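task queued by scheduler; priority normal; single chain, no ligands, no partner chains; default sampling; output format set to C-alpha cells
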Amino acid sequence: MSLSDTPTKSPNALRRIGLVMVDLQNDFLAPEGAYARGHTVSPEALLLPARLAPIAQAVKQHQGLVAASLFTLWPDADGKPMISPHLLERRPFLRKGDFAPGSWGQANVDAISPWVDVAVCKVAYSAFFNTQLDWVLRRAGVDTLAVCGIVTNGGVASTVRDAHMRDYRTVVLSDGCATFSDAAHQAALTDMASVAEVMSCDQFLTTL
C-alpha cells in the first residue's frame, strides 16, 4: 500500500507528509559527544545521518515538513543538568553541559541539520511529550508522519505511538532507526506494526 492509497480529508485535499527525526544529536552520535565519552554508542546509529539526509531532502522537495526532536538536559539554578533518576542510573557518565539547551552537543548532527525546518526540545522519550510538535505539524497541515532516528525501542517507538494516538497516519522507516541490538530493533518494529506502516527508506522514497 502506498501513502496515497488512503482517502484524504476531502476529494481535493492533498496529503502532506512530515518527517520526524528523533534525537540525531551530537551528544548521542559524534565522536566528541557525551555518549561516545561514555562508550555507549550504537554502531548502527552512526550510519543513520548519511542514510536519512536524502530522505529529509526528498520530503522537502515534495513540500513536506522536516522536524527533529532534541533531547535536552535543562540546567538547574546551579547549572547542573536535571536528569531523571532512571536515566542517571543507566548513564552515570552524563555531566554538566551534556545536552544543554543551545549547546553543540544538543544540536542535530551536521549531516541532517540543513534539512530541518523545526526542532523541538524534549525531556522524555516521545517527541510529542511536553513539546510543541503536534501544534507545529497541525499548523503545517501534516496528516501523514514518517518517524526515524534513535533508539528504535525508545524515542522512536514512543513517538510513533503518540502519533497514532493523535490520529496521524504513521510510517516507521525500518532502516532509518537503530538501537543497541538487532533483536531489540526487530522486536520494536514488530510491535510498532500494530499502529503504523513499517517500510524501508527506499520504499518510502518510492511512495513519495
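post-processing summary
- Strands lie at 16-22, 65-71, 118-122, 142-150, 169-178, 197-199.
- The helical segments are 26-29, 34-37, 48-61, 85-90, 133-139, 152-165, 182-192, 201-207.
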